[in-house]
Amino acid sequence: MDREYLHSTQDIDFKFYQNEKDFVVDEIPMGEFLGRGNYLILKVQKVELTTWDMIAIFAEYLAIPAQKIGYAGLKDKHATTTQYLSVETKYEALLKKFHHNQIKILSTTRHSHSIRMGDLVGNRFSINLYELDAIDAGKIEKVARKIAKSGLPNYFGYQRFGRDAGSIEQAREMVKGELFIEDSKLKSFLISVYQSDFFNEWLRERILLSKESGSSEFVLLSGDVFVSKDGKLSTPKLIPSKEFAAKKIAPTGLLCGRDAFRAKYDAAEIEKKYDDEFLQEKGQRREALVYPSDINCKYVKKETMLNISFTMPKGSYATVFLESIAGKNYSAKDVKRDKKSKKR
User: What is its EC number (predicted)?
Assistant: First the structure.
């Protein structure tokens, strides 16, 4: 199902590619590392590898189970990405001899505990957009700043659903009991695909509703579930427009499952269409909007290229931001440069 957006530059057709030069990601850790403790923190850079691939390489080199290596989040494969890993300090000497063509240890420090999933603030992206003139580049920067101010619909990007999005149908069949999956990791992945697809469909309807009302902002409904900056969920009786405008709270959508906080009143009428109350896995809420920040644009006339760098909160997708700017949906095939084409 198509992802809909509130702001775009639909008359501008730019290109971007997910590769090591044109798509760069730097993880922003939760806070400062102590510089002492029983865990070694590695700042690593990887090229054209998934996070799982990289962890498997370190696990094999250190002769330890992959579960012994801590990490905060998964990073794109087709990119140059920097992130943090943790291992016990007893492997420090061995890691000084580590060498791999696609992985570089940039620095090390120590900390009191291992890195856990979610231990990051967000990610900093630097992406090259091609086939643009200076006027189009200016329009893109203007729309990007408008999105950052009013909020980006927090869709799950195409990466969530596998290369051809076939995992969505597979997930539905598994949940219905028509497909048996034995592998626990695959089963967990398909459950997340199932929840994510429902969330995206719900968010699309809410964006269309906002557009139909003539608003260029996300329209709130009575019964919406909001999350505050400290992570508390609430359903106020009155629509909290002022708090929303001040970015003190954000509306959320449902990732269906047990024990999840559900919407009420008008918001519930839409939400229940994208719910599965019989799903046994734990449900949760996801912010409907996120706010890209620290946007910086640099146009290179000689290459008809605009470099756009920005920071995104954890769990959100840079490609969704680019989709919103372009007013179109991308797939993995759209952003892969043909190997035969000229390298930039």
Answer: 5.4.99.27
